[in-house]
Structure formats: C-alpha cells, structure tokens
Design a protein that fits this description.
- By secondary structure, the protein is of the alpha+beta class.
- It has one domain.
- Helix content is 28%, strand content 33%.
- It contains 2 helices and 4 strands, in the order αββββα.
- It is globular, with a radius of gyration of 14 Å.
- The chain starts with a helix and ends with a helix.
Length: 75
C-alpha cells in the first residue's frame, strides 16, 4: 500500500472508531497490507483486496486473545 492509501485508511478508521490514537503503518517488505496500532499497541492488520478489477476493498483482521479479555474482567 502506498502512503496516500495508508493515510486515507487511517483517517477513515479514526473517524469510524472515534479514536485519534489509532495509527496505520506500512509493513516492512509487504505491499498488500498495513499494521494497525492504538498508541504503541499493535491491534491488527489491514489487507488490500484487489483481485476483482472493479471491486477494490480492504479487510481488517484483529485477533483478541483470552488473556486480553482477562485483563479487562473488572469492567
């Protein structure tokens, strides 16, 4: 993904989640995806899907570990 595309995705996700701390960063040696962070914490990957010539989309994948849920058990 190029820097302009990454900036657009970051702006979209910040608006969608009302979260200015969200960052989208290029992945080393990968041009089909980018990493998503909240502050310094890695939360997932966005994959670019351009297999259909007229239908460009992006897929956000986020894994939630059981350990993460236990940290927030007091909520």
């Amino acid at each position: 993904m190029n820097p302009e595309e990454i900036a657009k995705l970051e702006a979209y996700l910040r608006r969608k989640f009302s979260l200015d701390a969200l960052k989208v960063k290029a992945r080393p040696k990968k041009d089909d995806s980018a990493e998503v962070y909240i502050g310094d914490e890695f939360i997932g990957v966005i994959y670019r899907d351009d297999e259909d010539d007229d239908d460009l989309s992006w897929n956000f994948q986020m894994a939630i570990l059981e350990f993460d849920l236990e940290e927030d058990a007091d909520i």
